[in-house]
Every structure is written in C-alpha cells, then in structure tokens.
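User: Here's a structure from my thesis project, written as structure tokens. My advisor, Dr. K., wants to see whether a designed sequence matches the one we expressed. Can you design one independently, without my sequence as a hint?
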C-alpha cells in the first residue's frame, strides 16, 4: 500500500503539494506565512523601485507594475488564502473566477459608457458659441 493511498484514506482527497501537518507542528504553518510575507514585501519594494528608479523605459512602467501586481495577487492567494488546484478548492476557484468576471465587466462597462458619453456630448466651446449667436 502506498503512502499516498494511506493518506487519502485517513484524510480524504489530498491535493498534490499539500503538506499534512499534525497539531504538534505549528511552526510549519508559520513558515508558510513568513515566506508569503517576505515575498509580498519584496514585490512591494520592487514596485516602488520600478517607479522610483530609471531602470525601466518609461512607457514600460505600467506593464511592469501590472505584472508585479498580478504576482502579488498570486502570492496572497497561495500563501494566505491557501487556494490551490486541489479538489477541495474547486468552489473557491470558481467563486474567485466569478468575482474577477464581475469586476472586469463592471469596470469595462463603466469605461465604455464614459467614453461614449464623452464622445457624444457637445463640447463647452460649441455651447458658448451657440449662446452668443442669440
């Protein structure tokens, strides 16, 4: 009998990479949080470094900040929210995807509406010219 088979019999389905720890091993959980904290601090410092130094070409700064932001979201999801690809986390991943879809559609719809309102509204200069003609 394999070790994975005995673990799955005892604890149920276990995702690859999940480390089971007993109650007398609290340091293992703290180590994961410390790694996540250090990675978060490094990514935050890197984003300040990207803006504060001239190491990156100026038009590339927004792209670098977006990449660092996505990386930091990934660190938070894995190390603090403990979301992984295990079978127990399917509902969490679907809820996260639905939230991302909702936020994306709200923001893109709002920007689309504001763009078209701005494009279709009469300019203030034209309004003053019409007022002077009367």
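Assistant: Designed independently from the structure alone:
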């Amino acid at each position: 009998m394999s070790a994975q088979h005995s673990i799955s019999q005892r604890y149920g389905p276990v995702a690859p990479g999940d480390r089971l720890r007993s109650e007398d091993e609290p340091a293992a959980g703290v180590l994961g949080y410390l790694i996540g904290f250090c990675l978060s601090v490094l990514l935050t410092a890197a984003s300040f470094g990207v803006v504060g130094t001239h190491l990156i070409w100026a038009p590339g700064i927004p792209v670098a900040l977006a990449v660092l932001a996505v990386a930091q979201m990934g660190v938070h999801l894995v190390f603090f929210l403990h979301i992984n690809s295990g079978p127990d986390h399917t509902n969490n991943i679907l809820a996260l995807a639905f939230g991302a879809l909702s936020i994306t559609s709200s923001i893109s719809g709002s920007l689309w509406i504001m763009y078209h309102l701005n494009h279709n509204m009469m300019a203030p200069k034209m309004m003053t010219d019409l007022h002077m003609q009367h």
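When you compare it with your expressed construct, this may help: The chain is about 70% helix and 0% strand.
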